[in-house]
C-alpha cells in the first residue's frame, strides 16, 4: 500500500510533500475515492477555476492560500510563491485532501486542495479551453412583447443600466423573462433576462448563478452588480450580476 501511495504521489509531482491525509474527496463531483490520494479525473474538472486570495500561510515548500471562488471559501496549497491578499490564482487540476496536517504549521486543515500548474493570469492554454467550452455569448436582440412588473423593493433593467455606477458592488433585485440559458460554464449557470425596459441599447441583463431556470420563465433574482468584469479568453461584461439567487 505504501508503494502504491508513493507512486501515485510522484506521478503528480508532489514528491516533496511529507504530509499526510486520511481520505480524499473529489472537489468537482463530491464522490469519494477508495484510494488515499488521487488525481481528479479530467472529465470531473471541466472548468478553469479562478480564485481570489484572502489569507496566506507560508512553509518551506508550499504556500497555503485561503481563497474565494464565487460565494465559496476554502484553502488551497501551491508550490511556494510570493502572494498577497487580493491576488488572482487560476488553476484546472487539484487534489482534495481531508483532515490534512501540516507539520510545519502544526495545523490540521479540514479540507485543502493541492493545486497543480497554477498561474496568476489565464494562460493561452486556458484561453483555448475556455473557447472550446463555448463561453456564453451575449444576446443582441430585444424580445418583443415582454412587460414585467417591478418586484417589491426591486428595480428595472433600464434603471440598473442608467445608474450603474450607483449600484456597482451592491445587491439588487430584478425581475425578468428568461431569454437565454448557458448552464455549467466556468462552474456557473449563465442566464439572460429581459423585462421590456431599456436604457439605450441596454435591454438584456446577464447574471451568473448556481440555481437553474427555464426558458421563457419569469424570475426574480437577487445578486451583486459588477462593472467591467473580465472572465479571460476575451470575454468581458460592462455590467453583470453575479452570485445571483433565483427566487
Structure description:
The chain has 247 residues and is mainly beta. The chain has 2 domains: 10-121, OB fold (Dihydrolipoamide Acetyltransferase, E2P) (Beta Barrel), CATH 2.40.50; 134-246, OB fold (Dihydrolipoamide Acetyltransferase, E2P) (Beta Barrel). Helix content is 12%, strand content 43%. Strands 1-6-7-4-3-2-5 form a 7-stranded mixed beta sheet, with no helix packed on it. Strands 8-9-10-12-11 form a 5-stranded mixed β-barrel. The protein is elongated.
Keywords:
single chain; 247 residues; mainly beta; OB fold (Dihydrolipoamide Acetyltransferase, E2P); seven-stranded mixed beta sheet; five-stranded mixed β-barrel; 12 strands; elongated; disordered N terminus
Mean pLDDT: 79
Name the helix and strand elements from N-terminus to C-terminus, one letter apiece: HEEEEEEEHHHEEEEE
Query: Per the principal axes of the C-alpha atoms, what is the gross shape?
Result: elongated
CATH superfamily of the largest domain: Nucleic acid-binding proteins
Structural Rg: 21 Å
Which structural class should the secondary elements be placed in?
Answer: mainly beta
CATH architecture of the largest domain: Beta Barrel
The percentage of residues in β strands lies in 35-45%
Helix content: 10-25%
Oligomer: single chain
| DSSP, total strands | 12
